[in-house]
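Hi R.,

As promised on Friday, here is the backbone we talked about, encoded as structure tokens. Could you run it through your design pipeline when you get a chance and send me back a sequence?
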């Protein structure tokens, strides 16, 4: 006898069933024609303000009222929880719809049926190894880095309908910024003084329809635009910029965001020196840091025919490792196609239009309410991807059907285009 967990999530009463996920997820995929439909997972951060490009109704960006934490992310196809402290059940985690009306948590499905969901790579990854998210902030994020987690961005015009070519992402450091200046900047942060680190960075002006790859240990402060961000399935980060913009001017981030992922017991000047040495100064000061990591779209000419257009937006292998990738497609009004891809778990997120995918309806809507089930996010498990393509139909007579597909480690191999950072002479 399986027992469901009854969860009140905002306006919805959800029935979540973890027991027997190995069987229920396979039944759900079979009913969906190989494709799993996802319940949306919105995430709130205490140190961010929403840019309101996630298609929620205005009031729902602030579940705790105007002074509480606010929604600035939506996670897609995640088998891990977000670590926010907001107290929302399953925040960040993806859930699949079962035809009997209950939801299956993706972590239970992945660990219960690893061969079906992830395939042989599960044994080395211990999970899916990746997920995709949208983040969307009112102001740029502070200059920060990730000790172990590379990430990449897709700038999707369908999720930035009001964008005016006016936002920058800060990257790396200028040539004059030496280790002593970096150490002073860390000391200022520790003392609670504004270190203005972002003003010493190079900048990328965001152009919609492009991508960007951010390797580990590179300082970056993502622009205030809706960004689709494939990444590793871990949440390590460390802020080096002390203050960020807020409606009243600037606000101090607090030292705990600087001290993340440090060895126990490190203090004083030893801590300062460790924080400096964790920044890869040579690569941060590379004058071509923007050109090397900017990802111009690469059209898949073979796949793009019969009203279907498909292009690479996130590609490249840092240090030779394929960690994730993302392609954006557009299907013309009334057209249909068969989505093909590698034998690997695939996360699909639609950003415009309506139609069908395998046995599911697709609809991208605005004015979403928190807790409302949607028809715009899907996962193709490894076993179904291995069997071949998935039928996609645009049922609109006037609008394109637009979406992204995202894959994890070692999905494409030699079929993936090379990023500039792989071919640039050192
Ligand atoms: Fe980041």
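Update: got your reply. Pasting your designed sequence below so it's all in one thread:
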């Amino acid at each position: 006898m399986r027992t469901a967990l009854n969860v009140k999530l905002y306006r919805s009463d959800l029935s979540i069933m973890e027991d027997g996920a190995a069987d229920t997820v396979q039944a759900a995929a079979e009913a969906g024609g190989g494709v799993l439909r996802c319940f949306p997972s919105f995430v709130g951060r205490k140190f961010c303000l929403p840019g309101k490009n996630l298609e929620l109704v205005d009031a729902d960006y602030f579940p705790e009222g105007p002074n509480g934490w606010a929604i600035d992310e939506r996670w897609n196809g995640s088998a891990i929880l977000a670590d926010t402290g907001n107290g929302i059940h399953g925040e960040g985690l993806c859930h699949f719809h079962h035809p009997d009306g209950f939801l299956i948590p993706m972590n239970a499905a992945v660990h219960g049926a690893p061969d079906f969901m992830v395939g042989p790579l599960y044994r080395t990854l211990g999970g899916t190894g990746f997920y995709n998210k949208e983040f969307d902030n009112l102001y740029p994020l502070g200059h920060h880095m990730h000790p172990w987690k590379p990430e990449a961005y897709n700038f999707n015009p369908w999720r930035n309908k009001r964008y005016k070519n006016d936002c920058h992402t800060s990257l790396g450091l200028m040539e004059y910024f030496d280790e002593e200046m970096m150490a002073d900047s860390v000391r200022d942060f520790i003392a609670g003084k504004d270190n203005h680190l972002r003003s010493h960075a190079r900048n990328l002006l965001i152009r919609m329809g492009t991508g960007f790859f951010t390797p580990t240990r590179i300082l970056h402060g993502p622009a205030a635009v809706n960004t689709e961000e494939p990444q590793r399935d871990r949440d390590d980060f460390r802020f080096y910029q002390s203050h960020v913009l807020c409606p009243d001017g600037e606000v101090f981030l607090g030292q705990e965001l600087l001290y993340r992922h440090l060895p126990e017991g490190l203090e004083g000047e030893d801590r300062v020196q460790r924080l400096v040495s964790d920044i890869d100064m040579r690569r941060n000061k590379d004058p071509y840091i923007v050109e090397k990591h900017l990802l111009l779209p690469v059209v898949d000419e073979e796949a793009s025919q019969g009203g279907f257009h498909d292009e690479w937006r996130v590609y490249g292998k840092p240090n030779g490792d394929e960690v994730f990738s993302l392609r954006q497609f557009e299907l013309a009004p009334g057209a249909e196609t068969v989505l093909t891809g590698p034998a690997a778990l695939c996360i699909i997120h639609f950003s415009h239009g309506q139609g069908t995918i395998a046995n599911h309806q697709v609809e991208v809507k605005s004015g979403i309410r928190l807790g409302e089930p949607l028809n715009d996010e899907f996962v193709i498990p490894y076993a179904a991807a291995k069997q071949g393509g998935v039928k996609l139909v645009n049922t609109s007579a006037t609008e394109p059907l637009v979406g992204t597909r995202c894959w994890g480690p070692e999905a494409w191999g030699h079929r993936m285009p090379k990023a500039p950072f792989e071919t640039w002479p050192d």
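One thing I noticed while checking it: The first strand starts at residue 5 and ends at 9.

Thanks again,
M.
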